[in-house]
Amino acid sequence: MDTFGLVVIGSGPAGVSAARAWLEAGGSTPVLLVSADRDEPYERPPLSKEVLAGDTQPEGSPIDGKPLPNQVELRLGQPVSQVDTDARTVTVGGEQVGYGQLVLASGSRPRSLPSADADADVHLLRSLDDAQRLVAAAGHARTALVLGSGFIGCEAAASLARRGVTTTLVSPEKAPQVDRLGTHAADAISGWLTGLGVTLAMGTEVSSIRAPRQVHLSDGTTHEPDLLLVAVGVEPSSDYLDGTALQQHEGRVVADEHLHAAPGVWVAGDLARAMHAVAGRPIPVEHWGDALAMGEVAGANAAAAAAAGSSDKTESKEAWKPWDQVPGFWSTIGEHTLQYAAWGNGHDEEVVDERPGRFTVWYGQDGRLVGVLGYNAEDDYERGQALIEQGAELAEAARGDRPAEAAGESEDESEGGSGSDARDDAS
Ligand SMILES: Cc1cc2nc3c(=O)[nH]c(=O)nc-3n(C[C@H](O)[C@H](O)[C@H](O)COP(=O)(O)OP(=O)(O)OC[C@H]3O[C@@H](n4cnc5c(N)ncnc54)[C@H](O)[C@@H]3O)c2cc1C
């Protein structure tokens, strides 16, 4: 049986950055990185944006523009089927491989709709492979229906419209993203989408999908688009962990603020339900930048544990890094990029600062700043991230360094927040 100092499961941003951080911290080589994905590690965010819009080829660009270090042995197209945390082995392609340290970074997969016929011609979007099929279908489509108004749904609808496909976006939400981002951002997103020619069918559920692409909606209408994309969120890819002693919550692997899940086992990215060192509570995240940051923490800590000759946290914890970055993401809908950082458990107040060509939404809960969203407002976004981390008051954040009079005006424009239990994902 081959044994590696580090085995990483998953070739997304969390897995790749974990492998890199391990090597940078002086971890042993080679590292084994095993992935269900068939393609060399690539950036996912462009797939729903410039790739689907037809601005760039669906070829996949390397994560952070860098190839994997030579010391990483990559096994692609080989899903891990089992993990034995007592024996410290993983099973891949029927073969057992031993590990000293293990990073779990198998991310998520798109949810499908149970009301769809099994043989319905439905697209999901997660992998490069998915994107290549979607782009090929879009090349022949005159009409498209996108189900789901999360970020992937909004981005994909905008991209399809930009390439000339007559697109309808369907969602039970009253407006795109309103449940998470509130009315101001939702209105802006609605305007961007309709400006591109997207028809919004909001407040509408899918009743059923009959093969090949007959979609019955709760408003009584039936659609038969040339292309059907389901973008209704994701679920953790964790089936292969069934039967392990690892603690899981709704399919995510529970970990402490060092991303330590069990002796010799670390978790990062979408798969994790990790304690956040600053928030002081577990925060599930589904964001590219957070997966990179978590991978870095997991890889460095795994190397520190290996160097200490033990993965027992009581012995080597001092040297471990905490996961302490405020979660957030960027999303580009057509030509418009939003930057959002938040703790992710909703808000009860919004303060909007609208200025020509830009806006900022400050989100509060019980008077504290819990989130910021900026459109062409990078300065506010960066300041907001720091203030969220500090636990600043909403009023202080919204006032900023603008004259008191202007701040007063914007507070007068405050909108009631959705108060929703906003999910912290980009999907
Ligand atoms: C189209 C698209 C656009 C997005 N745009 C943005 C954006 O603009 N901003 C943003 O913040 N976020 C965005 N996201 C979300 C972001 O991509 C994810 O949060 C991020 O990829 C999570 O990283 P990860 O490494 O945890 O998991 P993933 O990227 O999901 O990678 C998981 C890896 O594990 C592999 N795997 C799964 N099961 C197994 C197994 N059993 N054995 C071996 N390997 C396995 C998978 O094949 C994959 O390689 C986007 C997502 C998509 C799909």
From TrEMBL:
Task: Report the residue ranges that make up the Reductase C-terminal domain in this protein.
Answer: 329-401
Alphabetical UniProt keywords: FAD, Flavoprotein, Oxidoreductase
Q: Does the keyword Disulfide bond apply?
A: no
- Where are the residues of the annotated region Disordered? 36-68, 393-427
Alphabetized InterPro entries for the sequence: FAD-oxidoreductase/Apoptosis, FAD/NAD-bd_sf, FAD/NAD-binding_dom, FAD/NAD-linked_Rdtase_dimer_sf, Reductase_C
Q: Where is the FAD/NAD(P)-binding domain?
A: 6-277
Per the entry, which co-factors are needed?
Answer: FAD
> Which Pfam families does the UniProt record give?
Pyr_redox_2, Reductase_C
Q: Where is the composition biased (Basic and acidic residues)?
A: 36-47
PANTHER family named in the record: APOPTOSIS-INDUCING FACTOR 1 (PTHR43557), RIESKE DOMAIN-CONTAINING PROTEIN-RELATED (PTHR43557:SF2)
Q: What is this protein called?
A: Ferredoxin reductase
Q: Which species does this protein come from?
A: Arsenicicoccus piscis
User: Top-down, what is the taxonomic lineage of the species of origin?
Assistant: Bacteria, Bacillati, Actinomycetota, Actinomycetes, Micrococcales
